[in-house]
Design goal:
Layout lengths: L2 H8 L5 E7 L3 E8 L4 E2 L4 E4 L6 H13 L9 E5 L23 H9 L3 E5 H12 L8 E7 L3 E7 L2 E3 L8 E2 L2 E2 H5 L1 H6 L4 H19 L3 E5 L19 E3 L6 H10 L4
Parallel strand pairs: 1-5, 5-6, 7-12, 12-13
Antiparallel strand pairs: 1-2, 2-3, 2-4, 7-8, 8-9, 10-11
Helix pairs in contact: 2-3, 4-8
The structure holds beta-D-glucopyranose (BGC).
Beta-D-glucopyranose (BGC) binds next to helix 4.
Length: 261
């Protein structure tokens, strides 16, 4: 019997993959039903270790995966808050600096003893939204931003991802954009929704000037409060909340790992 048949037998005929989202404050994982983009079991969240070194983060990823009874051939995708060049993390903003130069795919695959595919977290969210969510079936240029500890960016053209765009680090008015407009800046500076919306206005108008997107999708945990700030933004393109919200990274990483796209 082929591997594929084994796998579908375990999953009762469903096509599953496991997604993990490594964030600045939490590391989350869930099995994903790839036919719907929905979690096949409740998501598990473990706080990101203080010293977020490769060893510490890998140990949490292993704990997460071990908490689910996954068949050995279930694809595992890891959404990670840095550019990922064929597994390699060239630089990192919001986790321990010792990640720079590490090959995420190799380190995590050998700790888990199974093949793991790493992808930038915003790219994973963009793929999740394009496959199952707010940008599904949308042609043209779609810009997906994730607002959290940092700002992540995904650029899709006719549904195809241009990976590792890192547009949260655009220099705007002499500042690294995410230091002014991420959700963490709102919290750190105790900004009102209106004050934060002004920062977002400056950010997204710069994105519009540079990329002329047809659609802007806003994700990250704060997208659940979208009615507090998205209506305050004046842009050419429609700007809409992510429909998968904070699940987009997990879902997109799972679907990329399964080679769905
Ligand atoms: C990182 C990106 C990441 C984003 C969101 C930025 O600081 O450079 O790679 O996508 O934060 O986590």
């Amino acid at each position: 019997m082929s591997k594929h048949h084994d796998h579908s037998k375990h999953d009762h005929g469903k096509h599953h993959a496991f997604g993990i989202d490594v964030g600045g404050s939490g590391i989350k994982g869930a099995p994903v039903d790839l036919s719907t983009g929905e979690f096949a079991a409740d998501r598990l969240r473990i706080p990101t270790p203080r010293g977020s070194t490769p060893e510490a983060v890998t140990a949490v990823i292993a704990e997460l995966v071990d908490s689910f009874d996954l068949p050995s051939d279930t694809p595992v995708g890891v959404a990670f808050p840095a550019p990922i060049l064929h597994g390699l993390v060239p630089s990192i903003a919001n986790l321990d600096q010792s990640w720079a130069g590490v090959n995420l795919d190799e380190v995590v695959s050998s700790a888990l003893n199974r093949r793991v595919v790493g992808v930038n977290d915003a790219d994973a969210a963009g793929v999740g939204e394009a496959t199952y969510g707010a940008a599904r079936g949308v042609d043209g240029v779609v810009f997906v931003a994730t607002l959290g500890t940092g700002i992540g960016s995904a650029l899709l053209v006719d549904g195809h991802l241009v990976p590792n765009t890192e547009l949260g680090h655009l220099q705007i008015d002499g500042h690294d954009a995410e230091s002014r407009a991420a959700e963490s800046a709102k919290a750190r500076e105790d900004l009102s929704w209106e004050q934060w919306a002004q920062r977002l206005q400056r950010y997204f108008e710069t994105i519009e000037y540079l990329f002329s997107p047809d659609l802007i999708v806003v994700g990250g945990g704060v997208s659940k409060h979208h009615e507090k700030y998205l209506p305050l933004l004046k842009l050419r393109a429609p700007i809409i909340p992510a429909t998968l919200r904070n699940a987009a990274g997990i879902v997109g990483a799972a679907s990329l790992a399964a080679g769905e796209r």
